[in-house]
Design goal:
The structure holds two protein chains of two kinds. By secondary structure, chain A is α+β, with helices and mostly antiparallel strands. Chain A has two domains: 199 residues, Bira Bifunctional Protein, Domain 2 (BirA Bifunctional Protein, domain 2), CATH 3.30.930.10; 82 residues, Up-down Bundle (Methane Monooxygenase Hydroxylase, Chain G, domain 1). Chain A contains seven helices and nine strands; from the N terminus they run αβββαββββββααααα. In chain A, strands 1, 2, 3, 4, 5, 6, 7, 8 and 9 form a nine-stranded mixed sheet that branches. In chain A, a hairpin with a 2-residue loop joins strand 7 and strand 8. Chain A is globular, with a radius of gyration of 20 Å. By secondary structure, chain B is of the alpha+beta class. In chain B, helix 10 packs across helix 13, helix 12 packs antiparallel against helix 13 and helix 15 crosses helix 17. Chain B is flat, with a radius of gyration of 37 Å. Chain B folds into four domains: 147 residues, Alpha-Beta Plaits (2-Layer Sandwich); 123 residues, no CATH class; 195 residues, Hypothetical protein af1432 (Orthogonal Bundle); 118 residues, Isoleucyl-tRNA Synthetase, Domain 1. Classes of the chains: A alpha+beta, B alpha+beta. At the A-B interface, strand 4, strand 6 and strand 7 of A face strand 16 and helix 8 of B.
Amino acid sequence: MAQNSSKTGGMPFQNIILTLQDYWAKQGCAILQPYDMEMGAGTFHTATTLKALGPENWKAAFVQPCRRPSDGRYGENPMRLQHYYQFQVILKPSPANMQELYLGSLEAIGLDKNLHDFRFVEDDWESPTLGAWGLGWEVWCDGMEVSQYTYFQQMGGFDCKPVSGELTYGLERLAMFVQGVDNVYDLDYNGDGIKYGDIFQENERQQSAYNFEHSSADKLFDDFKKAQEECAMLLEAGLPLPAYEQCIKSSHAFNMLDARGVISVTERQAYIGRVRDLAKGCCEKWIENNAERWKRDFDGWEA
Amino acid sequence: MADLLIEFFSEEIPARMQKKASDDLQAMITKALKEAGLTFEAAAAYATPRRLALSVTGIPASTPDISEERRGPSTSAPEKALEGFMRGAGVTRDQLEEREEKKGTFFYAKIEKPGRAATAVISEVLEATVRNFPWPKSQRWGRGSLRWVRPLHSILCIFGGETVAATVDGFTAGNTTRGHRFMGADEFAVSDFADYKTKLAEHKVMLNTADRMALIEAECKSLSAAKGVEWIEDRGLLAEVAGLVEWPVPLMGGFDDAFMAVPEEVLILTMKKDQKYFVTRDPKTGKLAPYFITVSNIEASDGGAIVAAGNERVLTARLADAKFFWEQDLKGKLEDNLPKLADIVFHKELGMVSDRVERMKKLSRHLAQFIPGCDADEAERAAELAKADLVSNMVNEFASLQGSMGRYYAKAQGESDAVADAIRDHYAPAGPSDACPSAPVSVAVALAEKLDTLVGFFGIDQKPTGSKDPFALRRAGLGIIRLIVENKIRMNIGDVFEMALGTYGWDDHKVVLDLCEFVGTRLIHSLRDQGIEYYVLYAALNAGEETDLGQLIYSARDLYLLTEKIHALSSFLETDDGANLLAGYKRAANILKIEEKKDGPHGGAVDAGLLALAEEKTLAAALATAKADATAALEAEEFEKAMAALSILRAPIDAFFEKVIVNADEADVRKNRLALLSEIRAAVNTVADFGLIEG
């Protein structure tokens, strides 16, 4: 069996982020900062969900911390984390050379296309909580899934016209691959002695204990309910942006309840359905608020 | 005559869709060409991850000229009618001809349609094909509204060496394409199919899927041989992998021997399903070898060392996960999982999996008495543990390993081989071609599992309808039949259904009859697959006037005996004796039918004294023997013997019809001969109702 433990010296974690930001900035993307709320994936960022609606051009790239309470492993699993980072790119409309742009970004972080085997393997994307779906691939590098690549077809139940192209890089996984490291906590964070584990391992331990053992189901049920009520109220008031934040809050409360194991299989669908209804409501209101301008600026546009 | 070459160049087409897409492309275009009046010599379609291509040879330069004559209105018809006719025919007044006929003078138009250029036809066909292509899933991209499986980048369309002028939604057909994503040059022009194929190969694209598959297979074999191991052939994976690469480069990698402690099923599944690797085995032991083959899409500048090493690392991480699950599961006992089954819903109206297990335990114990060599305690124990692996770490991660993992964990906690094997086998048979369990304990639990499913869903009125069978009840029904028939299990199916309903606390004879009918219908389907028509089943059931299949199966009780009889009858009907006896029977029955219409039922005892001709006497004697022998054979459940008993009737019946006139002048002789015919019917019917055999 080939030896690879000696393969070191790949790009540090933070340099991967800086390089990707720089690369996509050069492609005309607005480099945003993370959304300051707990969310399950970068797709939940308004720069993706709401901006995917309507006719206007849009290009953005950003890091988004993601929370998946059920994936916590108390800092003991080499690959699974309840808190991790995604690098998200959205290009609207999806450009004809999007695959080439994407492969260029991998080269920028040190993956030589003459030395690695890159593959686009069918993987269609669907988010039941956002009422969204698209077609695309998971991108493999030497058998490792390094990104998710999607052409959005619907968001919040509305057709995406034009279609946005979305790229999601799982940063830890990608960095492990680039650095040749088998344990996420061993990742070189800054190229100057700080490891990923130094920053995040204790957080994984404590947050896992909170998610699985100490979270209060009563409080979470209450959070869910209140966020849902607040969202509905804000939609009534014609304010889709704050309403959407409440929708994200309820989604996170649901994920926490799920991790706590207090939602039965049958109830699960009902909870997801309630989040989806609100997400759709937010998308609908967002379109409604913007429709007049969109119609004026884009001849013949309709939802 | 000229050749046509079409290529749709796109982003990566899912491997599973490529074969059908190339078939559809060929079918759509050749059909449209034919409909437009263009003939061709041959057509062949190709698919790679990034392109669909079609080559059609020997197409004429244009469609044939068409000359047509149309009769119009009478010259005395109103002007409006004439205008309508001219508009329809596309002619003017001066092009019309008047002809005198018997009924008056009529206008005639001669329409000359010159043939259309093939290029014009091709251009239309191309556009229609792009717009109507039957992708299982398609998408829009950018600002366009066109749909394709993934974004389309270019269309190539060459006819007779020239680019065909065609435009679809902003795409103008050209004569250029691209090679391999990483190893091919950017864009190049081609002139015809041969040139296309050659240039693609130069630019590192193997156009033909079969060529890619053959190369992968040969390389896999030689890579394996070099390590002294054997490639485990897998055609499905081979086809899939060939759809993921344009230029296959198989590479071998290995994994640590330490993972060999994990069951092979787990290792194989991880490699094949998740990573799409081929696996190898040690030819001496037949066991899995620690080498895999991945098929890359690039001739890497380092010979593939980094690609292979990267794949090894990915696999190592996955196998480490699997090993962790395996070790975690072995820390506890399989039976420790049982309480957790109370948390898994089987179906909201049918309770939790733990309830299902309780029912399966009762059923398995009950069924054990009908299965020779089946220990009732072992059957119950196997049923108790059958579902326990559903909450193991491993099955949680790899659902398809249910049963297989249960067997390993059962053995680890010291269960007998019979119990452990039954846990693995109890989901089988999963379909008509899946192996059917034959070990007694396995049979009991496999039957119990399917009976519980079938009875439960029938009990809450969730029967399959039309194409909808969400709970796979048809498969369960067929499974029950196969388990009973292939293992020669003797039991009363109605009683078993009643017993199974009882485990749910139900008692409903109507549901039992519905279940019997369902099993009867599945049996008819299964017989048809073996080339036996449904009426043979009704004949074997001596159905007569009764048409309620549920009632018939319920009364038949024993499904194994029933199928034995059906097979004996079906074989007999294929023999000369059988076919002739059937003909004689039908002749007798027809005559009786006609005569009985005239004067009511004939029957009663045959008066031996009135038998005059030798043929009558012989037949009467044969009937008595046949009837007695057949009855005895049936009682002994020897169906072939019963058929053989009937076969002695063939010669006497043939002779009778040849020599004897049934409708004799003497009323008593006629009556007696009709009684003899009625005896034929009765004797044959003791075995099966031949009147129901068609054809």
